[in-house]
Design a protein that fits this description.
about 160 residues; mainly beta; Thrombin, subunit H; seven-stranded antiparallel β-sheet; five-stranded antiparallel β-sheet; 1 helix
C-alpha cells in the first residue's frame, strides 16, 4: 500500500492511494487523481520514496490509471477471484481519508453486478457496492475481504 501526490517539488498539490499489483513496481490508482499532475511521487509507509513515476495507461471511464516505479521484489496483495466476493461479508478499506494516509474503515460488501447492467458504464467488469463510512477524499482506497485479499479499488463514477 502506498500513497502519492502530484507536486511541484515545493507544494504537495494532491494525494491518492495506489495498490501494488506486480512485484516489479506496477501500481493501480484512480485516474482522476493523476490526470492533471505535473509530477508524481510514490511514498510507501516504510518511508521509501520513488520520484521517477511513469504513467503506463489509463481507463478514464473506469477511473483507473496504471503507474510504474523502478522497484523489484515489492510485496503484492493477493486478489480475490470474482467468485470469492460474497454479498454480506465484512470488508476493510485502507486509504487516505482527508489526506491522512493509511486510514482504515470497515463495512460490508452490499452488492455486486456486471457493469453491462448499467447504461453507459461499459462492459466486461464487475462493480462492487460497499456499505462503509467513506469520505469522498478516500479515492483509491483498497477494498479487502476478511481474508486480506483485495477486491478492488474505490473509484469514482464509472459512467
Amino acid at each position: 500500500m502506498c500513497y502519492f501526490g502530484g507536486a511541484d517539488r515545493e507544494v504537495l498539490t494532491g494525494m491518492a492511494n495506489a495498490l501494488v499489483v506486480r512485484e516489479n513496481g506496477i501500481l493501480l490508482t484512480p485516474y482522476r487523481a493523476v490526470k492533471n499532475a505535473k509530477t508524481l511521487q510514490v511514498r510507501f509507509k516504510n518511508g521509501e520514496v520513488f520520484d521517477d513515476v511513469k504513467l503506463l495507461g489509463v481507463d478514464a471511464r473506469r477511473d483507473i490509471a496504471a503507474l510504474k516505479i523502478s522497484a523489484v521484489g515489492l510485496p503484492v496483495v493477493p486478489f480475490a477471484s470474482p467468485s470469492q466476493a460474497k454479498v454480506g461479508e465484512a470488508v476493510v478499506l485502507i486509504g487516505s481519508s482527508y489526506e491522512l494516509p493509511w486510514s482504515v474503515a470497515t463495512g460490508t460488501l452490499a452488492a455486486y453486478r456486471m457493469a453491462d447492467e448499467l447504461p453507459g458504464a461499459g462492459s466486461g467488469f464487475k462493480l462492487l457496492q460497499v456499505s462503509a463510512p467513506v469520505a469522498s477524499s478516500r479515492s483509491g482506497a483498497a477494498v479487502f475481504d476478511s481474508q486480506g485479499r483485495a477486491l478492488g479499488l474505490l473509484v469514482g463514477n464509472v459512467r
